[in-house]
Amino acid sequence: MSTYDQHVFDELKKWEIEMTKRPTLWNKATKTVQTKINEKIPQKVHDVVTASIKQMIKATLLGSEYTTRKTSQFQGSLQEQDEKLKERLAFYKKTAAFEGAGTGAGGFLLGLADFPLLLGIKMKFLFEAASIYGLDVKDYRERIFILHVFRLAFSDPHKRKEAFEKVVFWKETIDEFPAHPGAINQINWQELQQDYRDHIDLIKMLQMVPGLGALIGVYANYHFLEDLGEVAQNCFRWRVLMEQNHE
């Protein structure tokens, strides 16, 4: 293991502690508040968000939109892969911020449109990130891995340890899925949608407030991509190092 790889390994062990720690009192209080907020949000808003999440994720697993673009596997050391990801993440953060500013300034209807647009940006980033770390995103089973990375990034703190273990013990996880698109029926859509919505609902609702929408849209979308980038990088780093150790 190179000096850089050892440094990454040490960072991943610290990240493991963060991902597996028990929910705090703040997490529990936030969950209670979020549940009450969800009860106040108009049903049509819930319907738009739920439908966009489910359709986008299904398109990710079954469609060709993401598997026919930028799927060439990057050749390089782990350090070079990290540098390449940093470069591409900067691009996606700016793209998300720009999109958030535009929809945030447009009021309620454009605010609703932000949900599927932002989700699309996140998915495009995850597919490109996977390719950077050498995954073949045309392989259906690797797309299942990408979905688990997405789930971990936006998981409920009470379920984060389970989501983390699904990623780091990937060989055991993927054995639960048949190697064909029918595995999509084994995904708990309700849980996945609700966790993602709970993660973003509050700040995205504020994006629809007149006069504040554009500013909040820029801030929220930029940081959503930043958080996703950190989780994705660590998940893919983990895969790279674990597979190297088993060679």
TrEMBL record:
InterPro entries: EcsC. Pfam families: EcsC. The lineage of its organism: Bacteria, Bacillati, Bacillota, Bacilli, Bacillales. This is Uncharacterized protein (DUF697 family).
